[in-house]
UniProtKB/TrEMBL annotation, chain A:
Keyword Hydrolase: no
SMART domains in UniProt: ETF (SM00893)
Family: Belongs to the ETF beta-subunit/FixA family.
Record carries keyword Glycoprotein: no
Role, per record: May play a role in a redox process involved in nitrogen fixation.
Domain Electron transfer flavoprotein alpha/beta-subunit N-terminal as annotated: residue spans: 22-218
Database matches in CDD domains: ETF_beta
Protein name in UniProt: Protein FixA
UniProt keywords, alphabetically: Electron transport, Transport
Gene3D superfamilies the UniProt entry points to: HUPs
The species this protein was found in: Azospirillum baldaniorum
UniProt gene name: fixA
Quaternary context: FixA and FixB form a heterodimer.
GO molecular function: electron transfer activity
Automatic annotation (TrEMBL), chain B:
Residues that coordinate or bind FAD: 266-267, 280-284, 297-304, 318
UniProt keyword annotations, A-Z: Electron transport, FAD, Flavoprotein, Transport
Protein's recorded name: Electron transfer flavoprotein alpha chain
Domain Electron transfer flavoprotein alpha/beta-subunit N-terminal intervals: 24-216
Sequence similarity: Belongs to the ETF alpha-subunit/FixB family.
BP term (GO), one: fatty acid beta-oxidation using acyl-CoA dehydrogenase
InterPro entries assigned: DHS-like_NAD/FAD-binding_dom, ETF_a/b_N, ETF_a/FixB, ETF_alpha_N, ETF_asu_C, ETF_asu_C_CS, Rossmann-like_a/b/a_fold
Domain of life the protein comes from: Bacteria
SUPFAM superfamilies, sorted: Adenine nucleotide alpha hydrolases-like, DHS-like NAD/FAD-binding domain
One function term, GO molecular function aspect: flavin adenine dinucleotide binding
CDD domains: ETF_alpha (cd01715)
Cofactor: FAD
Cofactor binding mode and count: Binds 1 FAD per dimer.
Length: 283, 359
């Protein structure tokens, strides 16, 4: 069983600040982390390895510094790591990114057939949730997104049963390997690495591949291979008006609350009517 | 509104053969006979965009043929569609990526819409990513605003990025269709017009179940009230770090109960384990659009703001008069949420019970 886990190194979005004058992102000093949603997928891959045995290869596309994230994944228990890095990939949108990653997964498959690809549900910087489906479609793998639980894997029959979150409930799906899975957040608890894995990760000679290594076509990656174009980046406009402050004659909580209720009912008479009607009906 | 649509240094011309792509489509999301409201919100939005372009609105309804499906087709007209593409096959009864993608790819290639919109739901995001890949076209995820740049008649899709700290407008200039998913509750629900009707184009894809690898073994429906139904609540009382400790969440639940509303929280509270992810409002949680949003002890970080700023009326309670939430709330109250919340519960309770006695 060969599992590939695609991860992305992202800036910790909780720590990004906007420059007040120039309105640009201030990235200085913002730590780079593994996309948090990817960790749930990596953990699930490692659990499969623990349970039924598997080789887990972790793959990322990004600048050379993304190596740090691969070493982190190795320290958690991944067996092998591939850094896909090339200036020609710069500016890739999700369609081009999924193409580039697919070219690397195909190359990995030549070494040992890939049975499962895990991706994060989405990234915290781009938030698109499109790269996983893009990879599955390109590989012709079954696509299983928003998975809450892997119920069983039968290696002999090459079958997998999963629970998939949908809007109105949970679908229980049975499908065949190979497939692409994205795990929903909070579905498992991410482990701490073992000491010997940490030592191994620090010394590990990970693979560094570029466009030519994987045979990706130049017209399908980078800006050239990206149908979408960012035409404008801007900071959300503040509302023209600030909040009207609720003032009470006496600064007690009771007086302030009464004034707030007046203000709400005054601003939203229809809502007030609905609330009163509901109360009258005893709801 | 016309904005510069050519990024510096790059030229994008729509190839001649793609110019025949016309009309705006919404893929109507139905599961087990019920439609996700985001689909109708999108039909309403598509109507506005189509009127700008002078083209038709198409609603694509996929599923197994049934009276419920026919009713959904009728509803699509009342919300603003001109034409319904009714795609029926027993294999489409339950959502599965593979057959839905195959069918949609064929239908798009046959009828050539210039814009295809889907809800940014579990189904919509799963399907959109797959279709955009088979069609090798651009897809913009999770949009909060759509517009047409009239100089080249292209779709301008605006979405939050970097956790909501920035917005960016994305275009697909040289490929068709232009695709986008849109968050639920961001666009307003259109009014129904029951007199509206239109053409139905029936499509029979002739699928075979044996060709579909993924099987649905069962469906476990969410039992009502086990999870917060935040996205559809009319009233939300929300709590932030200002509440101090988890026990104080009770104050928020008390007020929500009196108002018949739901409780929402900010991301830090979920991360600290005060409550489940299903109550998180914001960029990585739910987008809400209630009639009344009471924000207690919430500073108003951008990640939270993008999830709730479209609320009809926002009352913010915060001890800090300079908290950013007062910049976009409609009503502000400077005070300690821990004392104001019980007082509000009381005040609303009295106001509503007085009426009950009078009635």
């Amino acid at each position: 069983m060969h599992i590939v886990v695609c991860i992305k190194q992202v800036p910790d979005s909780a720590q990004i600040r906007i420059h007040p004058v120039t309105n640009t992102i201030m990235r200085q000093g913002v730590p780079a982390i593994i996309n948090p949603f990817d960790l749930f997928s990596l953990e699930e891959a490692l659990r499969i390895k623990d349970k039924v045995g598997a080789r887990v290869t972790v793959l990322t596309m990004g600048p050379p510094m993304a190596e740090t994230s691969l070493r982190k994944a190795l320290s958690l228990g991944a067996d092998d790591a591939v850094l896909l890095t090339d200036r020609k990939f710069a500016g890739s949108d999700t369609l081009a990114t999924s193409y580039a990653l697919t070219s690397a997964i195909k190359k990995l498959s030549e070494e040992e057939q890939v049975d499962l690809v895990f991706c994060g549900k989405q990234t915290v910087d781009g938030d698109t949730a499109q790269v996983g489906p893009g990879i599955a479609t390109r590989l012709g793998f079954q696509q299983l997104t928003y998975i809450t639980k892997i119920e069983s894997i039968d290696q002999g029959a090459r079958e997998i049963v999963v629970h998939r979150r949908s809007e109105g409930g949970v679908q229980v799906l049975k499908t065949a390997l190979p497939c692409m899975i994205t795990m929903l957040e909070g579905t498992n608890t991410i482990r701490f690495g073992k000491m010997d894995d940490m030592f191994r990760a620090a010394r590990y000679g990970l693979k560094t591949w570029n466009k030519d290594t994987t045979g990706a076509e130049e017209t399908k990656v980078g800006l050239k291979g990206s149908p979408t174009v960012v035409s404008k980046v801007f900071v959300p406009k503040p509302r023209a008006q600030k909040a009207t402050m609720v003032e009470a004659e006496t600064p007690t909580a009771e007086a302030q609350a009464a004034a707030a209720v007046d203000a709400i009912f005054g601003a939203q008479p229809k809502l007030a009517d609905e609330l009163l009607a509901r109360a009258a009906a005893g709801l | 509104m016309s904005e510069p649509s050519k990024p510096q240094g790059r030229k994008f011309q729509l190839p001649e053969h793609l110019k025949e792509y016309k009309g705006i489509w919404v893929i109507v999301e139905q599961e087990r006979g019920s439609v996700h409201s985001v689909s109708w919100e999108l039909v309403g939005e598509a109507r506005k965009l189509a009127d700008k372009l002078g083209v038709e609105v198409g609603a694509v309804v996929l599923g197994a043929d049934s009276p419920e499906l026919n009713a959904i087709c009728g509803d699509a007209f009342t919300y603003g569609a001109d034409v319904v593409y009714k795609v029926t096959d027993p294999v489409l009864a339950d959502y599965r990526t593979d057959p839905y993608t195959r069918v949609m790819t064929d239908v798009v290639n046959t009828y050539k819409p210039e814009i295809v919109l889907l809800g940014a739901t579990t189904l919509g995001r799963d399907l959109a990513g797959a279709i955009a890949t088979t069609l090798a076209t651009g897809l913009t995820a999770d949009c909060t605003e759509l517009d047409i740049y009239m100089d080249n008649r292209s779709l301008a899709a605006t979405r939050p990025t970097f956790g909501g700290t920035l917005l960016c407008t994305i275009q697909t200039l040289a490929y068709r269709p232009q695709m986008a998913t849109v968050r639920p509750r961001v666009m307003s629900m259109p009014d129904r017009d029951d007199s509206r009707t239109g053409r139905v184009v029936e499509v029979f894809p002739n699928l075979r179940e044996t060709d579909v690898i993924t099987k649905v073994l069962s469906f476990i429906a969410d039992r009502e009230q086990t999870e917060a139904q935040l996205a559809f609540a009319d009233i939300i009382v929300a709590a932030g770090k200002g509440l101090g400790k988890p026990e104080n969440l009770k104050l928020v639940f008390d007020l929500a109960k009196v108002l018949g509303g739901e409780v929402g929280v900010t991301r830090p509270l979920v991360q600290a384990g005060w409550t489940g992810f299903d109550r998180q409002v914001g960029q990585t949680g739910k987008t809400v659009r209630p009639k009344l949003y009471i924000a207690a002890g919430i500073s108003g970080a951008i990640q939270h703001r993008v999830g709730m700023e479209k609320s009809d009326l926002i009352l913010a309670i915060n001890t800090d008069p300079n908290a950013p939430i007062f910049d976009f709330a409609h009503l502000g109250l400077v005070g300690d949420a821990l004392t104001i919340l019980p007082a509000l519960t009381d005040a609303f309770g009295k106001r509503l019970s007085v009426n009950r006695l009078a009635g």
